[in-house]
Specification:
single chain, alpha/beta, two-stranded antiparallel ribbon, binds 2-O-methyl-1,6-di-O-phosphono-D-mannitol, 14 helices
Length: 351
């Protein structure tokens, strides 16, 4: 399939992306937090439960996998990409190699992974991947982010994206301005604008086809330690303004990261953005924590009760699917939560 078509399939109306590409270290932290041992079997077990949830293919267009998962087999003998394909879900893969301290500014991180990338891309394509992800992180503080980190990460993101398109896959370009810090929403707007400007300049320099990428940015928020209240209407207006100013019109869409927002905040804010969207850009989700937190807590209560975990995950995915078209409402959340509390193992709660 052409990469433009893959990008549009990733952004299909009312669908978004599940980021399940936690490296083993991060996945171990997540499992530790609910006191489940981080064995290969448990990492696969939890993920397979999510990937086979009721109606998952109606809400999720793609799943970002980690190297371990894309090579695993599900309980019915299918490889994980085959299992996803059967549900009309595109398999994707994280291809960056994580972050390292930046020369000249060691408090900041750059993302590594270009060495040998072309060969790894061929391998992942043969395993079934049709899109990829590379994440760069930027910290806001009095002196950060530096121009050095903005430039270094933009150059790597652009080189990565060009190689991925050459390998006939869609690159998710993820520059994440972290929520940590005591800055206000205007500082987040200013930094995110500078980061996006530089990224798109480098993407152009590398002749990356804008129609064949998906941007995965942060929303524009007050810093998590600022003590300031986040207002969804203001977040939506600032986020939309920032993206309108900085994203070329050929880019088909945006799949936001959740970045430490609660599940409800991430849904509410995506919905608000879609309610005021007056552009051709598609806005959807590519959430990790904001799709998985509730399901992980439920699973930890009884890792053998697959249906209870799946009903929590399907509910969250459905709420975000509504938010992806601006049709989510708080009462849908409350009504469905009540059903979940009274009958937690009912499998078909949300037809
Ligand atoms: C799912 O977590 C991803 C991988 O993290 P590590 O490489 O640190 O293990 C992460 O890149 C994720 O895809 C994005 O941050 C979006 O996830 P959130 O939880 O912010 O929506």
């Amino acid at each position: 399939m052409e990469i433009e078509k893959i990008a549009l399939q990733m952004l299909a109306s009312g669908k978004g992306i599940l980021a399940a590409d936690e490296s083993t270290g991060t996945m171990t932290k997540r499992l530790d937090s609910v006191k489940v041992p981080s064995t290969e079997e448990n990492r696969l077990g939890f993920r397979e439960i999510l990937f086979t949830s009721n109606k998952v293919g109606s809400y999720v267009s793609g799943v970002i996998l980690y190297d371990e998962t894309i090579k695993q087999k599900s309980s019915n003998g299918d490889t994980i990409p085959e299992l996803l394909n059967k549900q009309n879900i595109l398999p994707g893969i994280k291809v960056d190699a994580g972050t390292k301290p930046l020369d000249g500014s060691p408090d900041e991180l750059y993302t590594d992974g270009l060495t040998g990338l072309s060969e790894r891309l061929k391998e992942y394509y043969n395993l079934g991947a049709r899109f990829t992800k590379w994440r760069a992180v930027y910290k806001i503080s009095k002196d950060h982010p530096s121009q050095n980190v903005i430039t270094t990460n933009a150059k790597s993101l652009a080189k990565y994206a060009a190689l991925v398109q050459e390998a006939n896959m869609v690159p998710i370009v993820e520059p994440e301005v972290l929520m940590d810090g005591n800055h206000d929403i205007n500082k987040c707007f200013e930094v995110t604008s500078a980061v996006l400007k530089e990224c798109f300049q480098e993407l152009k320099n590398e002749k990356v086809k804008m129609e064949g990428i998906v941007l995965k940015p942060n929303m524009i928020l007050n810093g998590a330690d600022s003590g300031l209240k986040n207002e969804p209407a203001i977040i939506a207006a600032k986020t939309l303004e920032c993206l309108k100013n900085n994203v070329p019109k050929e880019v088909p869409g945006i799949a936001f990261l959740s970045g430490g927002q609660s599940e409800l905040e991430a849904t509410t804010n995506l919905n608000e953005i879609n309610k005021i969207n007056d552009t051709k850009l598609i806005f959807t989700f590519s959430y990790g924590r904001a799709l998985q937190q509730g399901a992980l807590k439920q699973w930890a209560k009884d890792i053998h009760d697959k249906k209870a975990t799946q009903s929590v995950f399907s509910h969250r995915a459905y709420m975000n699917s509504l938010a992806a078209t601006g049709s989510w409402k708080q009462d849908k959340e409350v009504l469905l939560s009540l059903i979940h509390i009274s009958e937690p193992t009912r499998p078909r709660l949300i037809s």
